[in-house]
């Protein structure tokens, strides 16, 4: 049973449209190189690769603190970042990072 989709604005301090969504899914998951990584490790990948702010450490730090506040709990990556054209009903134009904890599974969806 799918939970309602939830959006989290990752740019609370900036006047721009959020480009990052938090979606909850119950789906079959696929292996990847990020399996088992924690939230801090995910940010090491997210910040320079997706959010293009490797030269803006202060903003990256604020964004990380914001997400930690929104996502209390021990999250662990179950499926890493890749274009998920193999997952049913998911457009290949989105990039996902799948994570889970004892409350369930979530996917970061990057447009």
Summarize the structure in words.
This protein is 23% helix and 24% strand. It has one domain. With 111 residues, it is of the alpha+beta class. A four-stranded antiparallel beta sheet has the order 1-4-3-2, with no helix packed on it.
On the 0-100 scale, what is the average pLDDT? 46
Total of DSSP H or I helical runs spanning 4+ residues = 2
Largest sheet entry: 4 strands, antiparallel
The radius of gyration is 13 Å
Structural class: alpha+beta
Straight-line N-to-C gap? 24 Å
In short:
The chain has 111 residues and is α+β, with helices and mostly antiparallel strands.
Task: Supply the key terms.
single chain; 111 residues; alpha+beta; four-stranded antiparallel beta sheet; 4 strands; disordered N terminus
Which helices and strands, and how do they pair?
Blueprint: E1 20-24, H1 39-49, H2 57-70, E2 76-83, E3 95-101, E4 104-110
Antiparallel strand pairs: 1-4, 2-3, 3-4
